[in-house]
From TrEMBL:
<keyword id="KW-0472">Membrane</keyword>
<comment type="similarity">
    <text>Belongs to the cytochrome P450 family.</text>
</comment>
<keyword id="KW-0503">Monooxygenase</keyword>
<dbReference type="InterPro" id="IPR002401">
    <property type="entry name" value="Cyt_P450_E_grp-I"/>
</dbReference>
<dbReference type="InterPro" id="IPR036396">
    <property type="entry name" value="Cyt_P450_sf"/>
</dbReference>
<keyword id="KW-0479">Metal-binding</keyword>
<keyword id="KW-0349">Heme</keyword>
<dbReference type="InterPro" id="IPR050182">
    <property type="entry name" value="Cytochrome_P450_fam2"/>
</dbReference>
<dbReference type="Pfam" id="PF00067">
    <property type="entry name" value="p450"/>
</dbReference>
<feature type="transmembrane region" description="Helical">
    <location>
        <begin position="6"/>
        <end position="31"/>
    </location>
</feature>
<keyword id="KW-0408">Iron</keyword>
<protein>
    <recommendedName>
        <fullName>Cytochrome P450</fullName>
    </recommendedName>
</protein>
<keyword id="KW-0560">Oxidoreductase</keyword>
<dbReference type="InterPro" id="IPR017972">
    <property type="entry name" value="Cyt_P450_CS"/>
</dbReference>
<keyword id="KW-1133">Transmembrane helix</keyword>
<keyword id="KW-0812">Transmembrane</keyword>
<dbReference type="InterPro" id="IPR001128">
    <property type="entry name" value="Cyt_P450"/>
</dbReference>
Amino acid sequence: MLASSVYYVLANVYSSINLWTILALLGAALWQWWKKPHPRFPPGPRGVPILGILPFFGKNPSKSTMHWSLRYGSIMSQRMASWDVVYVNNYETYYKCFVKNCNTLNGRPDVKLFSQIHGPNMGLVFKIPSDFCKNQKHLALTSIRRSTAQGQVIHDEFDYFFEHLKMKMGAPVDLKPLIYKFTANVISQIAIGKRFGYKHTKFNDFVSKIEHEFTDPNHAGKVHVCGFFPIMRYIPPFYQANEKFCLGQHHMLAFLRKQVEKSKVNFDPNTVNNFLDVLLHAKTSGDFKGHPEFTDTQIEVFLKEFFSGGMETTSNTLLWCVLALLHLPKYHQLIVEEIDSVIGDQKPKMSHKRNTHVTSAFLQEIWRCMPAVPQTPIHTTLSDLELGGYFLPRGTRVIGNIWAVHYDPQVWPDPEKFDPGRHLDKEGKFIRSFKIIPFGIGARFCLGELLARTEVFITFVKILQSFRISPATNPLPPLNDGICFLLYSPHQYQVVLSERN
């Protein structure tokens, strides 16, 4: 009896201790989830324990964040898994962050989604700021500006593009694969000094991997979650999406590795014709000779970012342009008439923009409503920062919400409406807006901005000079809804082309 009584008492005590231990651990976890990095940290939604706000992002995380900013302010925070991320949601705060405080906000975190492929601190997008990073950026900008100056590489590639489009006339066609091959070859000639045939198997596989990198409707959302919550890479169904993403990345790098090896064999330091030549020259006989960071992997990742960034932005913008024309036949007709009147059958060039007011307004509204990258990659503060009355400790993750800047009702009345007319004055002249920032601003702006703007204008005009476009999909995908995660792209649609005289 005594023994059983003692056992009963001890069992109850042990159960009580276990219960209190569990409650204490739960309380600690809840406190860790709820507390903020600093008493003056920006306010914002906390979501649920462990996951934070991730389950509430919806189809368009940038748009959801914009709506939350109406409650919490233009500078707000969100709990994402174990991170507190600060978002800036209008032009004024964006400018203060990334221009006035560009040196403080020039850091990058280790993004496991990419570092699992090739290791940390590779390429340029997620490179930790340094003199080496700054000099590589200068090399890239110089190469892009020299190659883009006259737009000749775009005109040359369009001739091949035109012949393939002609073969598709009269029947429904999805323009996306062909546009991606076109933009890939423009980048390829600038980056590695060569183009590939549109039936080149390995090139097509490379292009397809980039095409579906962040726009696959079956996996894009899961990959996005893996980017913010690395542990999810090991849990189905995110595991399968991450595996597919990694496989695609490895295929892209393998393709570029072969191109680098071929270029090494034929490299002549006295003849530098493309971006890869510039990199090889800098590595073998230039300022970076013997630099420990200038590895072959660094060159391959840099080239991959060059291809991916240039192709994704331009391709999706052109796809949005065509879709908008199909939705707005009035503007379709006005733009064609303007092109015929101002440019005729000449080769379009950027100097034509000053006299093609409706076309320029239409493209600016595309950049506003359909930013290819709705929010910036994650920045980190390199030191403590005071911003708009809030305190951001060193290491705080900060994102610029480009979508919110472009849809700010204080700047753009009725922002959800696609209206090119908002960019024309009373005399019908184009009004350029510096508050439309699809390529970002500040120290980490997109290096390919000049190429993308040139390529979109020239290609858009040449398509309308060459073809009549009519819808083959009924109903057409809406203009106010797309596939939105790291990138923003339209849903699939088809058109019918007929040649203009």
